[in-house]
Amino acid sequence: xxxxxxxxxxxxxxxxxxxxxxxxxxxxxxxxxxxxxxxxxxxxxxxxxxxxxxxxxxxxxxxxxxxxxxxxxxxxxxxxxxxxxxxxxxxxxxxxxxxxxxxxxxxxxxxxxxxxxxxxxxxxxxxxxxxxxxxxxxxxxxxxxxxxxxxxxxxxxxxxxxxxxxxxxxxxxxxxxxxxxxxxxxxxxxxxxxxxxxxxxxxxxxxxxxxxxxxxxxxxxxxxxxxxxxxxxxxxxxxxxxxxxxxxxxxxxxxxxxxxxxxxxxxxxxxxxxxxxxxxxxxxxxxxxxxxxxxxxxxxxxxxxxxxxxxxxxxxxxxxx
Length: 321
Known about the structure:
The protein has helices spanning about 5-10, 30-55, 270-275; strands at about 15-20, 25-30, 55-70, 75-80, 85-95, 110-115, 135, 150-155, 160-170, 175-185, 200-215, 220-225, 230-240, 250-255, 270, 280-290, 295-300, 310-320. By secondary structure, it is mainly beta. The chain folds into three domains: about 5-50, no CATH class; about 55-185, Jelly Rolls (Sandwich), CATH 2.60.120; about 200-320, Jelly Rolls, CATH 2.60.120. A four-stranded antiparallel β-sheet has the order 3-10-5-8. It has a four-stranded antiparallel β-sheet with strand order 4-9-6-7, with no helix packed on it. The N and C termini lie far apart (about 55 Å). The relative contact order is 0.19.
């Protein structure tokens, strides 16, 4: 049976679909209609290609440090860069009791997060002005091995300011770091053109950097030299250190060069951003590095007992040929 198209629509369409027993017949109009159809298809194809080319993503972590006395409330802020919007995929926190050394006690804090949404909306809840309405730690924040995962990315506009109100629930002063792990989204063509050409070939590979007997509170930098014959696709990160607070550290990963791009806005604490092989820190989006590039790992030993320590940080992913 024919499919009847309303007259108002039939006049605008050069294509009519007629249902028959043995199959479908595509009945086309005259030559002019065919030419119009071809031009429309070409325009839409070019538009889709431009949209894919003008948006690119890069994994990034935004974090802020703070500290609070026992029972005190403090506020810390994270300002996003002006060149990109940000999609937070995960949330994690680091806390350390400065008297006992305990890291990430389950009920160590309560927080409220205020953030400007992508379209000017805000996450501030003015109907809940007291600390009793703050969310407890395990309802909001995870850690490096098990971060809090957003079912839908939390989107924040360029130059936005995220404000974290933090209440210390412990009996001693606590040092804290809060972070959102996700991707920057740029309205521009990606500058990260790989040397490899499609179709790509991938091979699992890992790079590592080690720090041996590093003294406490002294910043050290070590390079990671990428292979000359293959680009690198970073998928997850792990570390090996003493499990207690005596193995605590912070690190910042970045590319070397005239305009180095770091993986985070500030150095990130171990229990917030660096997982282990059993529970690695998975990138929200693959990060690509050109073959022959040089990466730098800036590392600072934050052992609670002030002793020297050794640690290794590993980057896992694929070689791209």
